[in-house]
Structure formats: C-alpha cells, structure tokens
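Study this pair:
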Amino acid sequence: GPAVSSTTTVLIRRSLPELLKGDSAVLECAITQLSSSDLYVTFQANGVDFPEKQYVDLPASKGPHSLTRRFSIPKSHWKTDNTFTCKVNQGFSNSWVSSSKVKLFGE
C-alpha cells in the first residue's frame, strides 16, 4: 500500500495477568501514534482474520492517541503452531499489522 507519513506502531503481546491464570489465552494489541479517526482492530491466527472487529471512535485532539485492545483466543485456536497478529484499519486505505507475532505456547 501507499506509504503513511505517521509513525503508527502496532505491537501484539500476551496479556501477562491472564497468562498467570492459566485457563485463558488473552492477547493485547497496543497501538501508538494514531491520528484522530474512526478505526477498528482485528486479530488474526496465521494471517486469517477472526470475525470479531473491535471498533474505536477516537476523539479529535491535537496529539496522537495510544490505545490497547484485548482479545480472548477461542480454545479451538490453542495450538502450538498458531501465530497471532493484530491489525489496525483506519479509513479506507490505511492499515497497520503488528510487526511482531506471538504464539500461545513456548517462546
């Protein structure tokens, strides 16, 4: 896609408090340097979107926004070879995928 001038960053990570419970798998998508605009966040397993979209309405402000969205991974996807990413979609043309990937087990 076209180069985007902002320095929006998207990071995916396991949610540590949830990880310690051991009976759930929750991922966090941390997004920084976002402009004020409507957007939605999706999570992917092996590059395929989960159907759930998390819509966010950012208020207008002078500075960039940061936000975190959480997603509970269905047990059907608790597999050692699955890798998870998150993606931010803003407007019709801008999207950012997390630069990192996480696995639920190991690493």
